[in-house]
Fold this sequence. Notes:
The protein has helices spanning 3-16, 42-46, 64-69, 79-90, 126-144; strands at residues 54-60, 107-112, 148-151.
Amino acid sequence: MDKQAQYSQLIQKRKACRLCSELTNPSVYENGAFDKEEHIGPWTRWQGNLDAELMVIGQDWGGEDFYVTYRGIGDDENATNKTIRELLTFIGVPIELPQRAHGGSLFFTNSILCLRAEGLTGRTKEGWFKNCSRVFLRPQIELVNPKVVATLGFKLS
């Protein structure tokens, strides 16, 4: 099976997942209005190259309100997004802003793929990381098989 077919199966598996009862799967939030068929999560809409040499893994997408406000894509002015762009540009890997880029040359994803009701700075739980990492993150890393994996600010509360 080719990469795209494997990735599509992983996306469908994520859409059906209900392992973390305290989180909301984007496929059901707002009737799935901003959950796209071709991406496992919102960050992958920004940078989702299955042949990327660099994979960046964030903690989680954040809150339900942020997801709806930015229509499941991301805020060009978000501090995390701006910092990532600046750092990548500094090392000679410029990327477009989230609202303009689709696909990209890198692969971005989150360790937790569902949404928190509490917002961008809400708490996270170890079980959420364990569930999503085992079922979705590891398979993404194995599928993309990047040369470099960079992780950002993981915090349990």
